[in-house]
């Protein structure tokens, strides 16, 4: 066993490349979508159950907190979609180099940011 190996357990000092951040965000957005779909399916079931349930869901969705949650879920969906398109493009053989990967990550972040801001304007 080589005891001269550097050991860095402080995660705050590790500098990750931009491609790692986009990959991590893609996974996080997938988890958010998985949980969000369950909540939205519950609301759909409740709204289709009766007129009272529909009115309750309708009243709930007009609150500022509900709009924020919906904006968050739709933002996760848009980011996941844009990053997924990047993965499909890379599967086709485009942007597989280190420079291409970095450029693709920057494009994903820029396009997602613009779409999320436009989505926020639409939701509010």
TrEMBL record:
Major subcellular site: membrane
CDD domains (alphabetical): SQR_TypeC_SdhC (cd03499)
Keywords (A to Z) from UniProt: Heme, Iron, Membrane, Metal-binding, Transmembrane, Transmembrane helix
Domain of life: Bacteria
Localization, UniProt: Membrane
TM ranges: 24-44, 64-83, 103-123
Cofactor names: heme
Pfam families: Sdh_cyt
Bilayer topology annotation: Multi-pass membrane protein
InterPro entries assigned: SQR/QFR_C/D, Succ_DH_cyt_bsu_CS, Succ_DH_cytb556, SuccDH_FuR_B_TM-su
Similarity comment: family membership: Belongs to the cytochrome b560 family.
Role according to the record: Membrane-anchoring subunit of succinate dehydrogenase (SDH).
Subunit and partners: Part of an enzyme complex containing four subunits: a flavoprotein, an iron-sulfur protein, plus two membrane-anchoring proteins, SdhC and SdhD. The complex can form homotrimers.
Record protein name field: Succinate dehydrogenase cytochrome b556 subunit
Organism (species): Metapseudomonas boanensis
